[in-house]
Amino acid sequence: MSLHDEPLQFRVLGTFEITRGNRRCTPTAPKQRALLALLALHANEFVATRRIVDQLWTRGAPRSAIAALHGYVTAVRRALTPGWNSSRNSHPILNTRPAGYVLCLEPHQLDLTRFRELAKRAQAEIAVGDCARAREAIAAALGLWRGAPLADLRETGVFDHDISRLEKEYLELLRNRFDVMLCHGDGHLAVRELEELCTDYPLRERFHEQLMLALCQADRRADALTAYARAYRELSSHAGIEPGPRLRAMHQVILSGDDPFDRGHRHLAGAVTRRSPAGR
Ligand SMILES: [Zn+2]
After folding, report:
1. Where is the OmpR/PhoB-type domain (predicted)?
2. CA 238 to CA 249: how far, in whole Å?
3. DSSP line for 102-144
4. Ligand 1 centroid to 193 CA: how many Å?
5. What is the Cβ-side half-sphere exposure of residue 191, based on CA atoms within 13 angstroms?
6. pLDDT tens digits, one per residue of 16-51
7. pLDDT-derived band of residue 85, with 50, 70 and 90 as boundaries?
8. By the number of CB atoms within 10 A of the CB, which of 173, 189, 238, 257 ranks highest?
9. How far does the centroid of ligand 1 lie from the alpha carbon of residue 40, in Å?
10. If you measure from the C-alpha of residue 183 to the centroid of ligand 1, how many angstroms do you get, rounded to a whole number?
11. 122: CA distance to ligand 1 center in Å?
12. Taking the model in full, what pTM does it have?
């Protein structure tokens, strides 16, 4: 296989990177990078020229924007496919459509597609009660996460909405990860990370709830009550609200000395219950 035949790989779950084999093909010009990142986030979807212009020129597009965009498209096509000739009508992956473009990527060419597939699979495995398989899918998905998405394009402000959506998907995956760990009685392994998440995302009640469960599983009920007090403080000081019904109920169960795992991850709650109170 010649270098030219190797498939391009697009990565958005970290800094934006495009590689072909060992070779980096990411354009250095900021607008060209942003254009490709935008198309990659919407891989295999039609993206209107109007929308691209609006998004790339955040402070209002000059009259020359459309012509400039055509220039960027030609430049990135060459960067992606060495030897590509602009007099040809078609490009192997960046296709022109009436009033827009489509970047055609196979699932294995984009980390985001694989990440979403794995996250969806994990969710489905949890739903049918196979937490061991869910755990594998979650680990594989987390292996694709290299850090803050599109970290090098963050300053442009172009991707604020996309970045926050990706971060939500990541937090959702973490939530499933801790559910699965708790389901397997591994709460003691989750305490430190959950404490950090509760600090970073003080308004996410599910992380507080999972931290309380993890502490109970680690035979640290008193600390679980302290964690609740902290959640209470955080919620009231940051958002002026009280803990929601789930968190309050969890607090009551721990206070009363009942088994909190009845309220945790449902389908294997019984299995974990039988391992308490010694837990682990
Ligand atoms: Zn489970």
Report:
1. 1-105
2. 21
3. EE---GGGBHHHHHHHHHHHHHHHHHHT-HHHHHHHHHHHHHH
4. 19
5. 16
6. 999 999 999 999 999 999 999 999 999 999 999 999
7. confident
8. 173
9. 34
10. 5
11. 11
12. 0.88
Distance 176 CA to ligand 1 centre (A): 9
Per-residue confidence (pLDDT) for residue 48, from 0 to 100? 97
Q: What is the pLDDT at residue 273?
A: 40
- The per-residue pLDDT of the chain, averaged, comes to 90
Q: How far is the CA of 261 from the centre of ligand 1 (A)?
A: 11
Q: Where are the beta strands (DSSP E) in 51-196?
A: 94-97, 100-103
CATH of domain 186-280: 1.25.40.10
pLDDT-derived band at 72 (thresholds 50, 70, 90) equals very high
Question: What is the structure's pLDDT at 262?
Answer: 62
Q: Give the distance (Å) from ligand 1 centre to CA of residue 33.
A: 41
Sign, CA dihedral 59-61-62-64, equals positive
- Tell me the CA–centroid distance for residue 268 and ligand 1, in Å: 5
Is the confidence at residue 280, as pLDDT, over 90? Answer: no
Q: Tell me the residue type at 171.
A: L
Domain boundaries along the sequence of the chain: 3-108, 186-280
Whose CA is closest to 5, among 17, 15, 20, 24?
Answer: 20
**CATH class of the region 3-108:** mainly alpha
pLDDT value for 276: 41
187 Cα to the center of ligand 1, angstroms: 13
